[in-house]
Amino acid sequence: MEKSRFLKAQIYGIKRRSERKIRAYHRYVREGKRRVEREKAEEIIGMGGIGKNSEKY
């Protein structure tokens, strides 16, 4: 009885831990995508010559 309860708790803990890892990874990926989009937008704006940090081509 005790052993099975302990195992259940262990498995539950592992599940929770992996869930947190996955969530953190998703957040990281989302941030990365957002960063890439922002960089693309900055490139386009830079070509247009609008904004503070724009190089005039």
List keywords for this structure.
mainly alpha, 1 helix, 57 residues, 0% strand, rod-shaped
Question: Would you give an account of this structure?
Answer:
The protein has 1 helix and no strands. The chain has a domain at 22-49. Helices cover 82% and strands 0% of the residues. The N and C termini lie far apart (74 Å).
Overall mean pLDDT stands at 72
Task: Give the amount of beta strand, in percent.
Answer: under 5%
Q: From the helix content, strand content and strand pairing, which structural class follows?
A: mainly alpha
Number of distinct helices: 1
Rg (CA only): 23 Å
What are the low-pLDDT stretches, counting only 5+ consecutive residues below 50? none
Structure at a glance:
With about 55 residues, the chain is an all-alpha fold. It has 1 helix and no strands. It is rod-shaped.
List the helices and strands and how they pair.
Layout: H1 2-48
